[in-house]
Write a structure and sequence with these properties.
Two copies of one chain form a homodimer.
Chain A: H1 4-22, H2 27-34, H3 38-50, E1 54-60, E2 69-74, E3 79-87, E4 90-97, E5 102-109, H4 117-133, E6 138-146, E7 149-151, E8 154-157, H5 169-172, E9 180-184, H6 185-195, E10 205-210, E11 214-220, E12 223-224, H7 255-259, H8 261-268, H9 282-294, H10 298-322, E13 326-331, H11 332-335, H12 341-349, E14 357-360, H13 367-382
Parallel strand pairs in A: 3-6, 6-9, 10-13, 13-14
Antiparallel strand pairs in A: 1-2, 3-4, 4-5, 7-8, 10-11, 11-12
Helix pairs in contact in A: 1-3, 2-3, 6-13, 8-10, 10-12
């Protein structure tokens, strides 16, 4: 049996979810949608307004008679969620409001892999405070994306951040004063694709991202596939091929030795080529790969074709097993995607029945922070009473 | 806002779920567990008794004073669920009551692959009626396991039952008078492992079964992984190996060409060997494989080692991607399992970090029908009022 407080909080959540999923509507329509009385809906909307979660929007005249009402919409400018990404050589922050609008975004080059983790977390705290100082909304939470696996708020594995396993990221960010959650970057990117944009709410979606490593996030039945120890959806070290290229993990033939950024650069250029200069910005180097391919450079095209085929071989296994409605390619795969899709699709078609949608992410390298900010906002939708009444003040 | 009827039906479901998950208990304990008043619990239990779903059990004296009460338990002998398996050369039926006890079980040899589908469905109807005639409980539903993929109640693909794709199995079983659901056999087997026995309620579990084909069922986060078109968890045709053995699906190198029953028999015996006689009962042939292996026959042991290694190579991909707490081997894998586990574990350990549990199913070839009967019972737990009051009469 629910207490009255629980019932009210569930009804507040129901109204908020309706506005999120179906858009602005009148109080009368909300009453019809939820089965609540108009008086109850008015009271609930009033409370949500006081908590800074919804606002009265456009005037709305349902018919030719009666006085016009206003449409209620996710106000959202009252509260915001913060996504942070910690990666090998940068930090990124993105702030989303309840409507899914980006309220702030910042990226900071930092030698994360080469710095003490405590120092990095202090830099995150400073960066988050600075970004939030310019945002006119109350932050309700912070989610940190890390390139590794996570148990609770502790990093479990992070092949490219040697000092991070065992670190409690939430404890290190206590100075932000925000509730902190921590998750794998590719999982958060998958949630970003799922939460907004052309594939929003696709219940079965696979996200693959290529950087130094290869990451994956799987949304299955509308939920992130986490697995028994939080390692679900990991794809970089799938032993798909009998290849014997050594992998950073110590084994040989992992998928990322075939389709990771290193494989592309090795195949596309000799060691002295500026493409292989680790001191150059990655986006510049990828732009040059694209330029060479567009100019018809045979070696570049062959290298991209091999990556595409390798992606298709692995994607065939993922598609057979997980049966997603769409496979989204992010990270560097999206940047050079125009040259990957044909060989990828051919390799996939040779191994899996039926049509399969493979698309390029349009979120660029912000997918993980967007997913993080989305996750940080979710407690508000589960229980709007977690946001204090004064948030709108 | 819920109507009073919805609230009552949710409360009935809550009491029933408590008895299922936590076992027999007093009305007072149920009141404490659910937050409902004792009077409400007494009324709810009374209704559940009238619907044949719970019963008063053992006497229970909570302390040294006060009058003794009785423990309430899933009565369950009032209603039952029916699982049917349609396979290449047999039909099977199993009836479970609400307590998970097997109330009836029957297996019938039938050349399903060689018979018109309508005739097979008539045989199913006759078999189900005959089995239920001996069961003193009201059937609430029937779930049919098929060796293929399913859309709604229509068979989508069934490589080993050529006449079945496109067939509406529920329509063909209207004569049973029961609500009919249809599902993939390996998915139902996975649910059987999940619903009872040593791995009950393991939220992340992978079930692999070997017969002529190789099937898989994945429970992820406590739910069956279905995918966007119902093909999720299919493993037989994973393109894991660059092998080129032709597969029944028309492609080459599918996993079932490496670890299916055909691969074992080809490797273990020459064509003239009685092991390869398709007219012999499969269980006899498998018993002979085990006998030869136990006697130390080198060829048989080598064949089993190869199957185990091939299973480990594929299991490594499944484990990396899905991160299950346990992998359960069913079908013929369980029968010859004592010879598969060592090579399987070695192949897995070479490809995946950390300890991984791989166990043999103890359900034998009844896993699919058990899972089906379990599924057929679920509507009762969701809404106990679907069972008419006269069910207990």
């Amino acid at each position: 049996m629910q207490t009255q407080g629980q019932v009210r909080s569930a009804n507040l959540a129901a109204v908020l979810a309706r506005l999120r999923d179906d858009g602005p509507r009148s109080r009368a329509r909300l009453a019809a949608d939820t089965g609540l009385t108009k008086a109850t809906v008015s009271s609930l909307v009033g409370e949500l307004v006081d908590r800074g979660l919804v606002a009265d929007g456009a005037l709305h005249r349902p018919g030719s008679v009666g006085r016009p009402g206003t449409l209620v919409e996710l106000g959202g400018r009252g509260v915001c969620g913060v996504g942070v990404e910690v990666n090998v050589d940068y930090l990124a922050v993105l702030v989303l409001d309840l409507r899914g609008e980006v309220r702030a975004e910042r990226r900071l080059a930092l030698d994360v892999a080469g710095s003490p983790a405590g120092q990095v977390l202090d830099a995150v705290t400073t960066l988050v405070r600075a970004v939030l100082a310019d945002v006119d909304a109350t932050p309700v939470g912070l989610t940190v994306a890390v390139p590794g696996s996570v148990q609770g708020t502790v990093v479990a594995t992070a092949p490219n951040l040697p000092g991070w396993p065992g670190l409690d990221v939430a404890a290190g960010l206590a100075g932000t004063g925000l509730p902190v959650t921590v998750a794998n970057d590719a999982d958060l990117s998958a949630l970003a694709e799922w939460s907004a944009g052309p594939h929003a709410r696709t219940p079965d979606l696979v996200y693959l991202t290529g950087e130094v490593g290869v990451g994956g996030g799987v949304v299955s039945g509308g939920r992130l596939l986490r697995g028994s120890t939080g390692l679900g959806g990991e794809v970089g070290h799938l032993a798909l091929t009998p290849g014997d290229a050594p992998c950073g993990c110590g084994r040989r033939g992992c998928w990322e030795t075939v389709v990771g950024l290193g494989a592309l650069l090795r195949a596309a250029a000799d060691p002295g080529d500026p493409l292989c200069d680790p001191g150059r910005d990655l986006e510049d180097r990828l732009a040059e790969v694209v330029a060479r391919a567009r100019a018809g450079d045979a070696r570049t095209l062959a290298a991209l074709t091999d990556i595409g085929t390798g992606l298709g071989v692995g994607a065939a296994v993922l598609v057979s097993l997980l049966d997603p409605a769409v496979v989204v390619l992010g990270g560097y795969f999206a940047v050079v995607g125009e040259f990957l899709l044909d060989p990828l699709t051919s390799a996939l078609a040779a191994r899996v029945e039926g049509p399969r949608r493979v698309v390029l992410s349009t979120l660029g390298f912000t997918a993980a922070v967007r997913g993080g900010a989305h996750v940080a906002l979710q407690p508000v939708f589960h229980d709007p009473t977690t946001v204090p009444l004064e948030a709108s003040a």
